């Protein structure tokens, strides 16, 4: 079954992007998410939100 997840995080986009970047850096510094099967995703921003689209 194919699934697409779209998550919207409202708030200060600059701070949301910084939080995403910190989280991503921690995951990658520990070898990535390959143990669990990495979710392929794309990120997008608007004036007031960060979106993560997972495939």
Order of helices and strands: EHEE
What would you call the quaternary organization? single chain
Strand content range: 25-35%
> End-to-end span in angstroms?
11 Å
Low-confidence stretches: none
Secondary-structure class: alpha+beta
Number of helices: 1
The tally of domains stands at 1
Principal-axis shape equals: flat
Sheet with the most strands, sense and barrel status: 3 strands, antiparallel
3D structure, described in words:
The chain is α+β, with helices and mostly antiparallel strands. It has one domain (3-54). 31% of the residues lie in helices and 31% in strands. The protein contains 1 helix and 3 strands, in the order βαββ. The protein has one helix at 13-29, and strands spanning 5-10, 41-45, 49-54. The chain has a 3-stranded antiparallel β-sheet with strand order 1-3-2.
């Amino acid at each position: 079954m194919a699934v697409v997840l779209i998550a919207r995080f409202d708030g200060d986009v600059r701070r949301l992007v910084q939080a995403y970047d910190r989280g991503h850096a921690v995951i990658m510094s520990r070898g990535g998410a390959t143990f669990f099967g990495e979710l392929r995703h794309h990120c997008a921003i608007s004036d007031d939100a960060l979106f993560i689209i997972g495939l």
